[in-house]
Every structure is written in C-alpha cells, then in structure tokens.
Design goal:
With about 290 residues, this protein is mainly alpha-helical. The protein has a domain at about 215-285: 2-Layer Sandwich (Fusion Protein Consisting Of Minor Coat Protein, Glycine Rich Linker, Tola, And A His Tag, Chain: A, Domain 2), CATH 3.30.1150. It has four helices and three strands. Strands 2-1-3 form a three-stranded antiparallel sheet, with helices on one face. Helix 1 (about 5-30) runs antiparallel to helix 2 (about 40-215) and helix 2 crosses helix 3 (about 250-265). The protein is rod-shaped, with a radius of gyration of 84 Å.
C-alpha cells in the first residue's frame, strides 16, 4: 500500500501537466489579435495555420485519448497491483498470524521444556544430594570399619606377639629343660664313662702291681712298712721305657730293688684301648715290700 501511493501521485501529476499544456494552447489561439485583411499570401498562410491547428487539435485529441487509455490501463494495473498487494498483505498478515501462533506455541513448548528441565534438574540435584549424603555415610562407615579393623589387627598382632612370646618362652623352657636333661645325661654318661675308665685304670693298675710284685726281690732286713713312689713311663704294649724315683723310702737298697723289679716285669699289662693307654703312659705307683699299693 505504501508503494502504491507515490505511483498514483506521479500519474496524477502527469495528467495535470498534459491538461495544462492543452488549455494553454487553446487560450493562445483564442486570444490572439484580429488579423489584417488577408492577402493571397496571408490566406495561404492562414490556411496552413488552420490546417496546423486542426492537425494539432487532432494530435491533442489523440494524445488525450492515448493518455486516457494509458490512465485507464494504469488505473487497472494499479488496481491489480493494489489487489495483489492487498492479497500479499493478507497473506503476510496470515503468515504473521501463523508465525505469531507458531512462535507462541514454540514459546509455550520452550517454557514447558524449561519447566520440565528445571524439574529434572531439581530432581537430579536432590538425587545428587541424597547420593552425596549416602557417600558420606559410606565413607564414615568405611572409616569406622577401617579403625575397627586397625584395632582388631593391633589386638591380633598383640595377641600373636604375646602367643609368640609365650611360645618362645615355652620353647626356651623346653630347650632349657632338654639341655639340662642332656647335660645331666651327659654328666651321668661322663660319670659312668669316668667310672668305667677309673675301673679299667684301677684294674690295670692292680695288674701292674701284681706283675711288679712277682718280680721284686725285697732285700733282707728291709723295713717292710717302708715305701717309695716310682714314676713309670710306658710305651705301646706296656714296655717300660723309664723309671724315676719320685719319693725315696729312706733305704737306697730298697729303692733300687723296686726299680729293678719294674724293669724285670716289663712289658707291663696295659689296656688295648688307645685312649685308656694314653692315660697310663705315665703312672705313679706307691710300692712297699709287702705289696705294691
């Protein structure tokens, strides 16, 4: 509609302009001064002028008809254009209404969607808060459980250490008792062995006394209660290698006779066990005329 107004205004101005020109032309012809009596030349010129005016009036009529036709066409085109513009404006209004309705519907949908999203967000936040509380509760329970487990582990470790100490004490006591028993057994065994050794030594010592007694010729008039102590060195098999007087009887003759008897009794009876013989390689004997003691 706004574009149609300038067009109509231009068309009206054009018609007014042509009408003014036509009126000016007629006024000029009417108001011109009366001509002098025409001469032949003037008549000819007047004829030409009349013809020209007639031609001009015909042209003007043609132009006016043409202008009217153009105006009619222009009016028809303008009306068609205005009708088209009106139809376009109606379609635009309808489209605008549809767009406004669609926009309102879209806005309502957006508001509904926003409301739903806000509700879902609030629900999610509530769920998150509940989950956070549950997580905190689980963490607290886990921490308590860990503390309890640490206490239990500590108690178990203490109990285990206590049992280990008790076991160690019991084992140590058992080992001590066993060691004591072994020591006692060893002592008894050593004592038994020593007794056996002493018995063997005593037996062979007595055999040596008897062997020496058999070879000793006691000098006459010797004090039968007098005695001397001899140190006898023996070689394997009982061979006498040396005899020394460790303590005299006070009678040199009696001492020499005792030493002679030892050499004569060689080899003396000795044990075949090397360990026992080693104990008898160097022996000391107290000898008396009545007996070797």
């Amino acid at each position: 509609m706004e574009n149609a107004l300038p067009l109509r205004k231009s068309f009206s101005l054009s018609l007014v302009f042509h009408a003014v020109i036509f009126i000016a032309l007629i006024v000029t012809l009417v108001l011109s001064p009366p001509a002098k009596p025409p001469t032949t030349l003037d008549l000819q010129q007047s004829t030409k002028i009349v013809q020209a005016v007639s031609v001009n009036q015909a042209q003007v009529a043609q132009e006016m008809a043409k202008l009217k036709n153009q105006q009619a066409q222009a009016q028809a085109a303008e009306q068609a254009r205005l009708a088209a513009l009106k139809q376009q404006a109606a379609q635009a209004a309808k489209l605008k209404t549809q767009q406004e309705q669609a926009l309102a519907q879209l806005k309502a949908q957006q508001q509904a969607a926003l409301k739903q999203q806000q509700a879902q967000l609030a629900k999610i936040q509530q769920q998150q808060q509940a989950a956070q509380k549950q997580l905190q509760s689980i963490q607290q329970n886990t921490q308590k459980a860990q503390q309890q487990q640490q206490q239990v582990s500590k108690q178990l470790a203490q109990t285990k250490q206590q049992k280990a100490n008790e076991q160690k004490q019991l084992q140590q006591a058992a080992e001590n008792s066993l060691q004591q028993q072994l020591n006692q057994d060893a002592t008894q065994l050593n004592q038994a062995k020593q007794q056996q050794i002493n018995s063997e030594l005593a037996k062979y010592t007595e055999l040596i006394r008897q062997a020496i007694s058999q070879q000793w010729i006691v000098p006459a008039n010797s004090n039968r209660s007098a005695f001397c102590i001899l140190e006898i060195a023996l070689a394997p098999g009982g061979v006498v290698t040396n005899v020394q007087l460790k303590q005299t009887s006070g009678d040199p003759v009696l001492d020499r006779s005792a030493i002679t008897a030892v050499y004569k009794a060689s080899p003396l009876p000795v044990p075949t066990d090397p360990s026992l013989f080693k104990l008898m390689q160097d022996i000391q004997l107290k000898v008396q005329p009545d007996s070797v003691s």
